[in-house]
């Protein structure tokens, strides 16, 4: 498949950003991620307030704001990996009206592991690369020195984000399971092993 349309589902910290980067490198598709788009526009005024008010509390940004971002991004893309959306059933319904998907894949990771992954996550502000204090640090000292932690990766906000995931996003996963579209991937393997399973599923969907 030259330009696959992939939906990557998973809890916060499941590895969606990490694997999306493998997908975009390998398949040369767009990475459409509502989290990054909202972080780049955190103080944008909308009729619902700013994204920051929701994000720093670990809550979902209102649907109209997010739906608009996704519709604009998908309209421009032939192939894509969609990461961080849909996060509730109403967004899933919206998505079904604006895009056809080749693969819906879930990165399956237990809750205990998610808290460790999120509180240890570090980002390179220059490249957007994702690291972890224990599992994956860059070799270059210069890169290590400039890593930052996301505002919402503190333990308290992480726990709220996982609660919001259970309440709002788990029903989205159940929905794709019921329609028979969901492919589960063991997200607790090493990043390379997860990528190998994911790539095999993408090839299968071709
Ligand atoms: P998400 O985009 O789903 O929130 P990330 O890709 O940002 O998740 O990953 C969350 C954290 O877990 C990061 O610190 C990342 O380095 C780490 N991570 C990602 N995949 C794995 C893995 N398979 N094993 C261990 N740590 C991982
Ligand atoms: P993420 O980078 O995917 O972990 O998202 C970070 C934060 O952005 C979330 O905790 C939400 O506040 C907001 N966000 C990202 N995607 C969505 C979405 N699809 N719907 C609502 N809020 C979102």
Question: What secondary-structure arrangement, pairings included, does this model have?
Answer:
Elements: E1 5-9, H1 16-27, E2 30-33, H2 34-39, H3 51-55, H4 63-75, E3 80-83, H5 89-98, E4 103-108, H6 111-119, E5 121-123, E6 130-132, H7 141-146, H8 155-178, E7 182-186, H9 191-205
Parallel strand pairs: 1-3, 1-4, 2-3, 4-7
Antiparallel strand pairs: 5-6
Helix pairs in contact: 1-9, 4-5, 6-8
Brief sketch in words of this structure:
The protein has helices at residues 16-27, 34-39, 51-55, 63-75, 89-98, 111-119, 141-146, 155-178, 191-205; strands spanning 5-9, 30-33, 80-83, 103-108, 121-123, 130-132, 182-186. The protein has 206 residues and is an alpha/beta fold. It has one domain: P-loop containing nucleotide triphosphate hydrolases (Rossmann fold).
Structure commentary:
The chain has 206 residues and is α/β, with parallel strands linked by helices. The strands form two sheets. A five-stranded parallel beta sheet has the order 2-3-1-4-7, with helices on both faces. The chain contains nine helices and seven strands, in the order βαβαααβαβαββααβα. Bound molecules: adenosine-5'-diphosphate and adenosine monophosphate.
């Amino acid at each position: 498949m030259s330009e696959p349309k992939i939906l990557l589902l998973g809890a916060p910290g499941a590895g969606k950003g990490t694997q999306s980067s493998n997908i975009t490198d390998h398949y040369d598709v767009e990475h459409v991620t509502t989290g990054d788009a909202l972080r780049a526009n955190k103080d944008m005024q909308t009729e619902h307030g700013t994204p920051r008010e929701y994000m720093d509390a670990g809550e979902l940004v209102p649907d109209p704001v997010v739906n608009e971002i996704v519709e604009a991004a998908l309209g421009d893309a032939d192939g894509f990996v969609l990461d961080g959306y849909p996060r509730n059933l109403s967004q899933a319904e919206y998505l079904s009206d604006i895009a056809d998907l080749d693969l819906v894949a879930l990165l399956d990771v237990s809750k205990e592991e998610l808290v460790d992954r999120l509180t240890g996550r570090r980002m390179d502000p220059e490249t957007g690369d994702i690291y972890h204090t224990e599992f994956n640090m860059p070799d270059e000292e210069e890169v290590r020195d400039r890593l930052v932690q996301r505002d919402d990766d503190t333990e308290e906000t992480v726990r709220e984000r996982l609660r919001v995931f259970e309440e709002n996003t788990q029903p989205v996963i159940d929905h794709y399971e019921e329609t028979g579209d969901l492919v589960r991937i063991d997200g607790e393997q090493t990043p390379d092993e997860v990528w190998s399973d994911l790539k095999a599923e993408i090839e299968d969907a071709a």
